[in-house]
């Protein structure tokens, strides 16, 4: 028994070596740059179809990320089809939406589709474990620095090694070293947004997601598994620059909304320090660049205000994986057809939604417009519902 296991492991290592180091013409392989929601789900779908797949991720699981951790219910059929809906974690189901203006005036609205809450720490780790179990190879704590395409083959350089692939999926999120390497258009435009996230213990209804506005930003609050609450906000960097610390800014600016002040004052903060990210850009991107097939935020990021970036990341991983699997099944793999089909499908599904999200974000960037919009949405329900509808997709 021990010998058999030993032999099988040896055969598996040799096979991997042959696939990734020496090109076997009939066995095409995929390298995924980035192991967030979209990268991990692409790996799960490709390995399920027996396509040799490597995921290169610059961090190590499990880890926290800046994210509101509210997942739109449009993803539920897809997650169930992969047996990945985290039923056993008992995630809170969110069906109501509270919107408050800067002075705390607020309204609660029903959410047509709704969503559920789960921390990225837990969910990404669950996806990682599944991908690994299905046979995906992981290079962790490795950052891809370069990726070139020549004679129908990709050559990748990471922090410590070099690899080759037939297809490369760009799942490196909103902003990465890869964007600079590829000299993508948006990377030179500076973005003024900073994201901050905490997990807290507080008294917040399980079925409610709140969006509280403050000058130069907005803060989302909703529950995740384990009776914890996610508090995550996006703010203009000027807010932080004008104050000595994040905490000082929160007290000086965010506390002007009495609902936010009450939450900050009556909660136990579970992190030693907040998770933060800066330079969050909502500029348009392309779904294919230098033959790299981009998925999730790397293809285009919707404003967090819309609360469905993760749903879009999952949906783009689904359409991309299906196309790769179809194309690999043919005797004559045609890259041009794969790229064309992906760009067409991606545009049809996401281009309009991203545009709508950007227009809504613009309204929230300016104090006067933001106050007007929030007050209108609070008083005119159909307007709020129109905004929610315009930024969300259908279940997939
Ligand atoms: C403030 C804020 C709040 C949000 N709230 C919500 C919400 O409530 N609901 C929702 O649906 N969406 C929300 N989003 C959006 C959501 O977080 C993203 O849409 C989603 O994480 C995109 O997944 P992804 O796989 O594309 O990228 P990510 O999850 O960002 O993963 C990218 C991965 O690539 C890795 N990486 C990057 N470069 C390299 C490299 N060169 N080599 C190797 N690895 C690399 C990174 O370490 C990372 O793990 C929010 C976003 C922000 C900023």
Properties at a glance:
396 residues, nine-stranded mixed sheet, 2 domains, 12 helices, D-Amino Acid Oxidase, Chain A, domain 2, FAD/NAD(P)-binding domain, binds flavin-adenine dinucleotide, globular, single chain, six-stranded mixed sheet
Order of helices and strands: HEHEEHEEHEEEEEHEEEEHHHEEEEHHHH
CATH homologous superfamily identity of the largest domain: FAD/NAD(P)-binding domain
| Rounded radius of gyration (Å) | 22 Å
In CATH, the architecture of the largest domain is 3-Layer(bba) Sandwich
Q: Give the beta-strand count.
A: 18
**Structural domain tally:** 2
Give the end-to-end Cα distance, rounded to a whole number of Å. Answer: 44 Å
Major sheet summary line: 9 strands, mixed
Secondary-structure-based class equals alpha/beta
Q: Mind telling me the CATH class of the largest domain? A: Alpha Beta
Q: Can you offer a commentary on this structure?
A:
Helix 2 (37-48) runs parallel beside helix 4. This protein has two domains: 1-65 and 121-190 and 280-365, FAD/NAD(P)-binding domain (3-Layer(bba) Sandwich); 70-118 and 192-278, D-Amino Acid Oxidase, Chain A, domain 2. Mean pLDDT is 91; it is low at 20-25. The strands form three sheets. Strands 3, 4, 5, 11, 12, 13, 14, 15 and 16 form a nine-stranded mixed beta sheet that branches. Strands 6-2-1-10-18-17 form a six-stranded mixed beta sheet. The protein has a three-stranded antiparallel beta sheet with strand order 7-8-9. It starts with a helix and ends in a 5-residue tail after the last helix. It has 396 residues and is an alpha/beta fold. The longest helix is centred in the last third of the chain and has 31 residues, at 335-365. The protein contains twelve helices and 18 strands. Residues 33-39, 56-59, 66-71, 143-144, 171-174, 176-178, 195, 220, 232, 234, 280, 296-298, 301, 304, 307-311, 313 line the site of flavin-adenine dinucleotide.
